[in-house]
Amino acid sequence: MNGKIPCMLPGEIEKQSFAILTEELGQIAIPPEHEAVVKRVIHTTADFDYARTLCFSPGAVAEGVRALREGAHIVTDTQMARAGVSARTLQGLGGAVHCFMGDEDVAEKAKARGVTRAAVSMEKAAELKFPLILAVGNAPTALIRLSELIEEGEISPRLIIGVPVGFVNVVESKEIIMNTGVPYIVARGRKGGSGVAAAVCNALLYEASGRTL
Amino acid sequence: MNGKIPCMLPGEIEKQSFAILTEELGQIAIPPEHEAVVKRVIHTTADFDYARTLCFSPGAVAEGVRALREGAHIVTDTQMARAGVSARTLQGLGGAVHCFMGDEDVAEKAKARGVTRAAVSMEKAAELKFPLILAVGNAPTALIRLSELIEEGEISPRLIIGVPVGFVNVVESKEIIMNTGVPYIVARGRKGGSGVAAAVCNALLYEASGRTL
Predict the structure, then answer these.
(1) Do B167 and A191 touch (CB under 8 A)?
(2) How is residue B205 annotated by DSSP?
(3) What is the pTM of this model?
(4) Which of A56, B121, B143, B149 is spaced 20 to 30 Å from B7 by Cα?
């Protein structure tokens, strides 16, 4: 390794990163039950805005952890988020991670109806018979369709992670999902993304599986 | 779709997003040759900091586009970044995207030598016989090992996309990679990530393949 930089393995780097970001968070008060999620998102983004924008319905973290311990499956709206979720930890708890965005039938239905694949992929999620956590890091249309499916009684997720990123309909879709009555973890505002979605899932997974830093 | 939000398809949303972010960028002067990359990264992150932190070696974008048109392959340091690169566009140009982080031989070598898988995966990249673009969105150790391999003459990438995120060794590793003499696109500072790495690749890919918004 380069002489100027000490060689460290990922575990040590993670520990030191959390120590640094905890120190820099300083006086920002984060409720203890939100801490693991908020810190993992900041660790993933180096963006302290999330200490302010992450919103949790009461008991959301506990509910997510409980669902994962009961074998919940996770459905994401991007292959990137799917790739970022710790599949091994999830498998160890009896769950699995899905993303239907690349499925032929989803593409066909979306095209035929003039809607997004993200919206149709939420309908496909509604057909799953497992306890579900929906992790949306990209498509506001996924959140909007999800709110409709909830209202119609077609799906009742244990938790919605609503963290799409962007400039069009993103802010609004997050506000809608916070009014469905379903437990949520939402990054209010424009920021979010597949990496944030995966980071929230992993924070819950590590808590559910008893992994410590 | 929800009555409060107009139904839009991804293509329209993307166009409108770029219009909004272009307006908000306002007076920030971005050299025309960097515009596509900077805007796609902001589109992916909703974070205008990148207008300030993205650094380009002279001609880096043109070199990346040229390499892709000549069939360059892309190597990433995470499965997330790999999943985010437009594989179809890359394939159309004769390239492919690789990530060696999950490979058995990489894990074994890393364990035996007490180094990171990211470092070993750069060594594996050096064995590829294609023109190469390295896209590092996570591991500073990948950039550090890469700088050594360049110095030793073991690899000469056409372009390095150096955008790891984090609190430990990240800032330093980016400075090191900007001094190797290899064309680079780097997000100076702590921010970056797999999504940013993929966004930079896709901006270059869309330019190389003639895709317009």
Answers:
(1) no
(2) H
(3) 0.95
(4) A56
